[in-house]
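Hi W., the zinc ion complex you wanted:
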Amino acid sequence: MTIVNYLSQYIVPFHGLGNKEHVFNFVVTDEFFKHFEDDTINGGNINVNLKVLNNINSLQLIIGLKGKLKVLCDRCLEYYDQEIDFRDFVMVEFGEETNFDTNQECVFLKKGETEINIAQLIYEFTHFALPLQHYHPDTKTGETGCNKEMLDLINKYLTVENDDIIDPRWEKLKEIKNKN
Ligand SMILES: [Zn+2]
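Structure:
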C-alpha cells in the first residue's frame, strides 16, 4: 500500500454537507505514524472524533483525540504509553494554495477543493496533545513507573560526568570563599 493510499482514509468530503455540523470518526494506529518523518511519537492507538462546521467561506474543524501515544520517557529513555484526551479546533479558509502550517491562525485549502485530507492535522494535533514533559506515569503505589535499572545507570553516568567537569582551581576558590 502506498503512502498516499494509506492516508487517503482520512479524506473528508465536505461538498454538499450544508451548514449543519457533521461528525466523522477515525482510528489512528502505529501504522499511521510511519507515514511521517518526525519520530517524537513512535506509535499509538487513538480514536479521532472530527466535527465539521461548513460555513460559506470557511470550514471549522473540531478535532478530538483520545487514546494512547507511544513516546520516549525523558527520564529513563524508554518508550511508554502516554494517555491523551485532547480537543481543539482549526479554521480552514480557502486560498490560492493548500497550506496546513498550523502555526498560523488558520490553515488554507486550495479554492475549488471539495474534500480535505486531515491526516496532517491529526498528526500535528497528536503533538499538541502531549504534555510538556514526557515521563512514565507513577505506579498505583506512588512509585516511579520508570525503568529503575536504567535510572541507576543514567544517574551513575551523570555523577561521573559532573565530577569530570569540576576544575580543581574552582574547588580551591570555593574553599577560600567559605573561610571568609
Ligand atoms: Zn521513564
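The mean pLDDT is 88.

W.
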